[in-house]
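To whoever picks this up:

The parser on our side crashed when reading a file containing two proteins. I've narrowed it down to the boundary between the first structure block and the second sequence. Both blocks are reproduced below exactly, byte for byte. First block:
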Amino acid sequence: MDCRTAESLLHAYFDDELDLSASIEIERHLESCPACAARLARERSLRARISASSLRFAGPSDLPGKIAATLGVRSVDLNPHYTSARPARRSVPRQALWVASCAGALFALVSVALISRPPSAESLLAQQIRDGHVRSLMAEHLADVASSDRHRVKPWFAGKLDFSPWVEDLSQEGFSLVGGRLDYLDNRQAAALVFKRREHVINLFLWPSDNDRSEPLRPLRENGYQIVHWRDSGMTCWAVSDINAEELREFAELVRSRIASSTPPAQPK
């Protein structure tokens, strides 16, 4: 685990929100990284100070008199539930109460409908893509075949998948091929191609589309990670990274154009 990944998981670890394997990974990193261990110690110290501090503030004794003088009343009780300067009670028409009750009920029904709405298929798949990317970084298992040579990476997938994935090194354009591995997404096996943009890892997931319909690039953001997905040339493509949205879109456009111009195009066997 590197420091960037540890930093993104530090708050979840501090709040006991990680599963056992993730907790073990980050604890191993903290044992060997003084900087991240110091960051965790600062978080613990800050929470301890906040818990021990009193957040109440006592106003000066003459504050009620000053407020009363400003308001032109005899006295003011600073109890939030009571004030001696109470306005006269006004009667509310029964019809207005009925309308308010109906409006409140309607608002509650709409709120429940919005909250209980199940996530879309796109949203669920985006979470799988994000999780696959994070797992590859945490387990330090970016590639089953580590190479920048497409003639080594592409043949490695033969016999392991029911399709032949597009593979190409894009170093000349600033995106270096690192290798490839197998993954499982959307209830099927997928090819995961790993690229690097400077020190940032990009995972590109590929699998055959269930139809030949093309779809434009669609950017998403999932828990701090940039995602772009599209469909073209008979392939479903998802790219995910922590680089900025513009660079990931540049990468996606480049990959899309290369897949479309490849001969023969990547198709299911």
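<<boundary where parser fails>>
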Amino acid sequence: MVEIVRSGMAYREQQKRQIIRTEIEAVNGHILELGFRFPDLWDHEFLRSLEQTTAERAHEHFAQETFQQAQKLKQQQHIEHIEQLKEWFLRLAAEGDRNKAGLTLEKLLNRLFELFGLRPRQPFRVTGEQIDGSFELDGQTYLVESKWKKNALSEAELLIFRGKIEGKSTFTRGVFIALDDITGEARDAITRGKPPSFFVMNGYDLMMILSGNISLIDFLQKRRRLLAEEGRVCVPFSELK
């Protein structure tokens, strides 16, 4: 029935006799008398469009197409920017000087946060401590620390980061980015005695984000939930649901 109505509308358009809302409403009334109701013919936007002139509908259609094309272009540019960051990251991974690579990594991460609208703040200093940066997610602020060394990190630097978070406010959270992961002893140490206030992201996680396997927002939200519900600081990427 819906297809019949659409064919009738197309025919009337060719005849330059536009179907109006009252005609469709009359058809709906007859169909109801037969005990049927087709939601597409009752759709508010569909009925509203029948009140428009041909020129108005054409203008609206053009505006929608223009918006969709702009969104498509924006999405394509986003994908290209992420791909550029991936290539940048791979070049850094080949860098022999880990200290130099680590400093450049901060710039890469800030650009990544910007692309996902997380309003990053670059490295800043408060009394007695240096903080690599921060970002905002769903109205909450997260401190960021990033380390890129040749071996998995021990507990010392993680405990320092935990102290930085605890020195701010009860609702401050953090993300520790350890490109070469952390040791098993460190995993135990940062969850012993105190509830965890941050989670760890490693190089594989970052590569999965840069490869488009998961968006940064989705990754952070999933990890935040696992931290809140299960207290899990380190989670293999394969276990993200």
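After patching the parser it read the second block fine. The domain at 98-239 is CATH 3.40.1350.10 (Trna Endonuclease; Chain: A, domain 1). The mean pLDDT is 84.
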